[in-house]
Amino acid sequence: MHPSQRAPSQPIRRLLSTLACAAASLLITPAAVADTWPSKPIKVVVNFPAGGVADQIARAVSQPLQTALGQPVVIENRGGAGGNIGGDVVAKSAADGYTLLLSSGGMVSVNPHLYPKMPFDPVKDLTPVAAAARVLVFLEVRPTLPVNNIQEFLAHLKANPGKLTFGTPGNGSSPHLAAEMLKSQANVFAVHVPYRGAAPAMQDLLGGQVDFMFDPGIGLQHVKAGKLKLLAVGSTKRSAMFPDVPTLDEVGLKGFDADTLFGFYAPAGTPPEVVTRLNREINKILATQAVQDRIAALGGVPAPMSPAEFNNRAAADSARLGALIKARNIQSD
User: Fold this and answer.
1) Which residues pair with 265 in a beta bridge?
2) What is the largest CA-CA distance in the chain?
3) Residues 157, 188: contact at Cβ < 8 Å?
4) pTM of the model
5) Which residues, including other chains, have CB under 8 Å from residue 18's CB and lie 6 or more apart?
6) What topology is assigned to 138-233 in CATH?
7) Cβ–Cβ contacts within 10 Å for residue 238, how many?
8) pLDDT (tens digit, 9 = 90+) per residue, 136-155?
């Protein structure tokens, strides 16, 4: 037998087999991966503590999402650093569609302007999947403050510069930015009292230790019970829950918009087919009455969008809020 006709040796056969497998793997396209997705549980990292608005939105959407996808959807809370800790976890996860992030828009639009050094780049390292809800902030005052409407409140602020205090969940939070917008546009001054979360700030508002607060929704039950006065909404549109309460835009603070857009993100590089499927399923879920009711109870509005629309909104918010942060010299805690 000629040497060229001899069967390959065992090491050569193993090498040829390995090369064949590698070549075959190169033929597996993202579409093929998406065809088999999901084949195991999906984890949704919420970058704020359990019980908050982000956590409640994540759970409202995740429960029907696991039915739609046929796989368990597990919530994991990784709060801290204004959402940066949980965001970093997802940004550095495998881009296979099995790890998602539910975050407020602040992590993408606000944090890069607040933190001199972030552990990841939210624009480059994450990809928008689906917006979930637009969460409003409500301007509330202690019941003993001698005002009964927003006009009287603004006049009272102007007449008492530096004498009123406002509570927030912390520096750079959406309620803090809303109050800074108010101070800037109305040309008034009040003293900022930052707290470690919205709940302790709300407790001090109820107790009269601070005079007012932009509430992300947790105090609405107290408004209904008559324990707080609701004067205005920091949104471009009135709240369906309180249709008689004006927006700040209506009373002269033109363009006032302190809404926060909460939504789902995935690691950059996640197959587009997976992102498209998730976006479609989440938008369907947001159209159900049960989920709309749960979001409304938080003072929010469902916000179905395409990934591109979600991304464009985040970019616009970043430019607008970044300018405010710079002008008011707002820094992280």
Assistant:
1) 101, 128
2) 107
3) yes
4) 0.82
5) none
6) D-Maltodextrin-Binding Protein; domain 2 (3.40.190)
7) 17
8) 999 999 999 999 999 999 99
